[in-house]
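RECORD TYPE: inverse folding
INPUT: structure tokens
STRUCTURE:
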């Protein structure tokens, strides 16, 4: 008889416990999470944090963090609830702020979330899925707002995407600078974005900020040159380019570009020595070869325009003499254009110049061969 009473009591206790669990939204939420019934878990935990007693318990908020944390990782989590990641972070930070026994668990969970998002970001990056990688690195940065590693990774992958989201990239840059992360990459991106928008005033300001932090960085210096050149501030571009030459005196391209800028500003006497220096450093450098040839060719064209503008009386008086000066310049240009044409056989500008010079220098057969090449292009 006693055994029967005990059995009945056990059954009644079991039913009572079950009923109590159903009434306790915290326990219901915990059970639903265990069964991966996320929607039901959300309903239960939202009920729990509305309860006057349960909302004062750190375990309640920790459970809320667990639930929304789980939702932030499943593929359809964002469709089940709005922005589960933010809610999870708010819940964990609430626990930490309560300074009770579950604070260490909340901190541990934040570390786990950060690592999970970082790992997913790295996996997506290795699979060349830059958009997905950026999304996960950005989430890692949300978990730890003061962390610069995740943000710098997000900047790298966002910048490598097929379609670059300029606002997102600049946002990453600004957040990194605010965290005192001042690597050259951050400034280079800001300079590029401003230049792409042709907002040269903004680009120049970023250049100035970047040069203060990295006064001898070559990439930033080259970006500065590009910005000033595009903004038509050629004296400033020349000044920076001269500095770049000092930092990298064996780079032929720097000398070529310096020569071009000197030509554009009318300092032709400084242009040719820079082109020649580039050729000295790299005899087969196409840009240097072409630039020397173009320098002499342009001088010849200038003289030819003088002849073309002469009256008959002026031509009879000194036309022949001036024409000879034209030929001197074209003869100086000819070997460089011929070499350039051998290096790059489809450059129509070089071939067109060669044809004109051959005609003026009295070599029509060579001019005809050049025309044949032009006809095939």
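DESIGNED SEQUENCE:
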């Amino acid at each position: 008889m006693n055994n029967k009473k005990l059995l009945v009591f056990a059954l009644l206790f079991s039913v009572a416990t079950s009923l109590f669990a159903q009434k306790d939204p915290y326990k219901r939420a915990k059970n639903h999470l265990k069964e991966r019934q996320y929607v039901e878990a959300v309903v239960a935990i939202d009920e729990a944090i509305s309860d006057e007693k349960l909302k004062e318990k750190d375990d309640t908020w920790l459970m809320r963090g667990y639930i929304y944390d789980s939702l932030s990782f499943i593929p359809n989590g964002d469709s089940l609830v709005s922005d589960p990641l933010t809610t999870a972070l708010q819940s964990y930070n609430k626990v930490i702020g309560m300074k009770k026994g579950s604070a260490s668990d909340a901190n541990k969970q934040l570390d786990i979330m950060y690592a999970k998002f970082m790992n997913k970001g790295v996996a997506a990056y290795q699979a060349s899925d830059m958009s997905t990688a950026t999304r996960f690195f950005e989430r890692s940065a949300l978990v730890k707002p003061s962390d610069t590693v995740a943000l710098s990774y997000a900047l790298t992958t966002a910048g490598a995407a097929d379609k670059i989201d300029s606002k997102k990239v600049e946002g990453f840059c600004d957040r990194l600078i605010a965290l005192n992360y001042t690597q050259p990459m951050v400034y280079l991106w800001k300079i590029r974005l401003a230049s792409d928008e042709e907002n040269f005033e903004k680009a120049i300001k970023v250049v100035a900020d970047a040069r203060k932090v990295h006064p001898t960085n070559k990439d930033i210096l080259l970006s500065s040159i590009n910005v000033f050149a595009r903004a038509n501030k050629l004296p400033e571009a020349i000044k920076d380019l001269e500095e770049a030459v000092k930092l990298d005196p064996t780079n032929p391209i720097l000398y070529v570009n310096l020569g071009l800028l000197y030509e554009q500003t009318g300092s032709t006497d400084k242009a040719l020595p820079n082109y020649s220096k580039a050729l000295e450093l790299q005899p087969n450098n196409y840009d240097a070869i072409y630039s020397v040839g173009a320098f002499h060719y342009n001088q010849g064209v200038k003289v030819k325009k003088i002849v073309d503008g002469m009256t008959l009386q002026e031509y009879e008086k000194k036309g022949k003499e001036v024409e000879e000066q034209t030929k001197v310049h074209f003869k100086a240009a000819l070997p460089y254009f011929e070499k350039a044409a051998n290096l790059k056989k489809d450059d129509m500008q070089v071939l067109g110049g060669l044809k004109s010079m051959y005609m003026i220098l009295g070599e029509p057969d060579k001019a005809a061969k050049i025309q044949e090449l032009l006809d095939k292009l």
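NOTES: The mean pLDDT is 91.
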